[in-house]
Amino acid sequence: MKSISEGQIAAVVLAADRGADDPVTREAGVACKALTPVAGVPMLRRVFGALDGSARIARICLAGPSAAIIEHDPVLGELLGRDDVSWVENAATPSASVGAALRSLPDDVPVMVTTADHALLTPTIVTAFVGRALASDGDFVVGVARLETVTRRFPDTRRTAIRLSDGPYCGCNLFVFTTPQGRALADFWRQVEQQRKRPWRVIGGALGWGAVLRYLLGRLTLEQALDRLSRRLGIRIRAVVLDHAEAAVDVDTPADRQLVEAILAGER
Predict the structure, then answer these.
(1) Which residues have CB under 8 Å from 36's CB, separation 6+?
(2) Angle of helix 185-194 relative to helix 94-103, nearest 10 degrees?
(3) Residue range 62-83: average pLDDT?
(4) What gap in Å lies between CA 147 and CA 168, rounded to an integer?
(5) According to the 3-state scheme, what is the secondary structure of 77-120?
(6) Average pLDDT for 134-150
(7) Which CATH class is domain 9-262?
């Protein structure tokens, strides 16, 4: 396995097969969502291209899809034949898959996590996010973009946003575990998934119901929310606000796929 130099990190790409019921997989007629072609190129290959193009990424761990799918797909076979790429079986949930991937990597290596449907990810975004994450004092760093940044660049898209007092933020499916302590957050993530029908029970226990109420009333800033969560969990959690609208666009639906293909066609 390729060694990691100072300033470099490992990357985990979540590529679990969500089954034939996934609308993107069904429309594309592929074995798993990660292999869905976008402008003629499988999404997973696009994500690998973004990681390969950044000097910050030294090795990649692919979490999923199943061994049965890998055995019959030449794209996956090619990627996993590289000496800087490893694979772990996907678990039942994304957080469990992250945990399995983290356990396969040395504890002292910072790790970035992203998803295989991040078809607009670029080396520029990866380099900017990782650089700022490592420069922070966080044990765990999450990438976000302001909703206005996304809608200004892509006025026709609709993105889920977290409504906070300093502005709505969109998630970017970009995370960095910068320290061994930060990896403990994967357990909290798993709790949230297990209570996915009642996430406020977990979040309320971590932030305190007063903070949850202030969030619901739009009186809590992003920094205040993360500071309170950091104190409760004993892990320094920070956010990097990215200026790249593309970082907040992934392919969750066939409409998202059409949008991404239109964006790429416009860039060409």
Answers:
(1) 24, 25, 28, 30, 42, 43, 117, 251, 257
(2) 160
(3) 94
(4) 6
(5) HHHHCCCCEEEECCCCCHHHHHHHHHHCCCCCCCEEEEECCCCC
(6) 95
(7) alpha beta
